[in-house]
Design goal:
By secondary structure, the chain is α+β, with helices and mostly antiparallel strands. It has 4 domains: 2-93, 3-Layer(aba) Sandwich (Rossmann fold), CATH 3.40.50; 120-177, ATP-grasp fold, A domain (Dna Ligase, domain 1, 2-Layer Sandwich), CATH 3.30.1490.20; 181-316, D-amino Acid Aminotransferase, Chain A, domain 1; 320-414, Alpha-Beta Complex (Glycinamide Ribonucleotide Synthetase, Chain A, domain 4). Helices cover 31% and strands 28% of the residues. It has helices spanning 10-20, 35-40, 51-61, 71-75, 78-83, 94-101, 103-113, 126-136, 159-169, 233-251, 285-288, 296-304, 344-348, 384-396; strands at 2-7, 27-32, 65-68, 89-90, 120-123, 140-144, 153-156, 174-177, 183-192, 196-198, 203-204, 207-209, 213-216, 221-224, 257-267, 270-277, 292-293, 315-316, 320-327, 340-342, 353-357, 360-363, 366-369, 373-381, 399-400. β15 and β16 (270-277) form a beta hairpin. The longest helix is centred in the middle third of the chain and has 19 residues, at 233-251.
Length: 425
């Protein structure tokens, strides 16, 4: 199958690596890719959010499937433009992608579908935001209503910090939400417009420092599966969250074909939705896909063509997977880029270890860091202890001046079954 993958980050690299693991041989091209992706498949210099440029490329190559990785092209309507050519696309149209592009839209869909979520107030002026903050009280939760590159959410006990965050994003409106306490879970669903098929749950780590301290980030690591969720957890989320959401979108004319990311929290009162995304999550994708069995490309194409009922449900290995993000000095506030990276090949020589590139480039034969989150060191093993040991051994082999990473990804305290009875552990 000829597949065009749009995007340049770790999510897209993980998708491509998993497609290359299919028994079926695929002809994969990425646009624009990064240095790690370019080492695996051909890349094209292309703005993935430019619908005209993507259409021109699709018209030239006529791929069998286009996979849209990041959220920005989806919100920009790139999937609409490609579908108009009659080419299957894994990724929702612009209207359905509002599920991620507008948090107030997502709240309206959840309300109409009866999906459990926290209370929220949309504010378009700073006085409205301040009134809502005072209504809900601390801890304060403020979210930019639109896309914010992973920087649109703050959870804080400091009212001044909450007001400052609201002020920063007020031009696109903000949502002030009630604070929900519990363990967060990411659960992905393939969606074909009417049906959903669940992948395996994962948990990521948003704070930059160990023990969930420091600034919020796009994600500093993740692990999968989650031994502490109940056996019926996935089915419950499918029946109470994912399927009603897809059905509601279809009913209102916003058919969703692609990846529905359910950001969940397990509270003492039950499961609640924190947010939806319209694409694979990063870094959770890096630990979910390595455990996926069977033909990944077949699943993506079936979702894109509206026929998930024609393929087997996704199956997963019982092995454990973790990923640890290596970030540039200064991330997330002011990452220092342009530094040379060494030792990636040496890390990948370790059993069960792979290195997924998030923000890298090749400059005159040298691997260079080009962003805040630079590499994901992924390890798969029979136990979390073995996976952790392998991942951190891989990090030790990689050199990047000023690099920092968390040391507690998938630590024992985060994987014990007692998290169910002590959700704030």
């Amino acid at each position: 199958m000829k597949i065009l993958v749009l995007g340049s980050g770790a999510r897209e690299h993980a998708i491509i690596r998993r497609l290359l693991a299919d028994q079926t041989t695929h002809e994969i091209v990425a646009a624009p890719g990064n240095a790690g992706i370019a080492a695996d498949v051909p890349v094209i210099t292309l703005d993935a959010s430019n619908g005209d440029a993507v259409v021109a490329q699709v018209e030239r190559d006529r791929p069998d499937l286009v996979v849209v990785g990041p959220e920005a092209p989806l919100v920009a309507g790139v999937a609409d433009a490609v579908r108009a050519l009659g080419v299957p696309v894994f990724g929702p149209d612009r209207d359905a992608a509002r599920l991620e592009g507008s948090k107030s839209f997502a709240k309206r869909v959840m309300e109409a579908a009866g999906v459990p979520t926290g209370r929220a107030v949309r504010a378009s002026t700073l006085p409205e935001a301040e009134a809502a903050l005072d209504e809900f009280g601390a801890p304060y939760v403020v979210k930019a209503d639109g896309l914010a590159a992973g920087k649109g959410v703050i959870v804080t006990d400091d009212r001044d910090a909450a007001v400052a965050h609201a002020s920063r994003w007020i031009d696109q409106s903000v949502l002030i939400e009630e604070f929900l306490s519990g363990q967060e879970v990411s659960l992905f669903f393939l969606a074909d417009g009417t049906r959903v098929a669940p992948l395996s749950p994962a948990q990521d780590y948003k704070r930059v420092d160990d023990d969930d301290r420091g600034a919020n980030t796009g994600g500093m690591g993740a692990y999968s599966p989650l031994p502490w969720v109940g056996d019926d957890f996935v089915a419950q989320v499918r029946d109470e969250v994912a399927q009603p959401t897809i059905a509601q979108l279809a009913e209102q004319g916003d058919e969703f074909r692609g990846l529905l990311y359910c950001g969940l929290i397990i509270t003492p009162k039950g499961i609640r939705v924190i947010e939806f995304n319209a694409r694979f999550g990063d870094p959770e994708t890096q630990v979910v896909l390595p455990r996926l069995e069977g033909e990944f490309g077949e699943l993506l194409l079936a979702a894109a063509e509206g026929r998930l009922d024609s393929v087997p449900e996704p199956r997963f290995s019982p092995q454990r997977a973790i990923t640890v993000v290596m970030a540039s000095e200064g991330y997330p506030e002011q990452p220092l880029t342009g530094r040379v990276i060494t030792g990636v090949d040496a890390a990948e020589q370790l059993p069960g270890v792979s290195v997924i590139h998030a923000a890298t480039a090749d400059e005159n034969g040298h691997l260079i860091a080009t962003g805040g989150r630079v590499l994901n060191v992924v390890a798969v093993a029979d136990t979390f202890e073995a996976a952790r040991a392998a991942a951190y051994a891989g990090i030790e082999r990689i050199g990047l001046e000023g690099e920092h990473h968390r040391g507690d990804i998938a630590a024992a305290s985060r994987t014990r079954a007692d998290l169910l009875t002590n959700p704030n552990a």
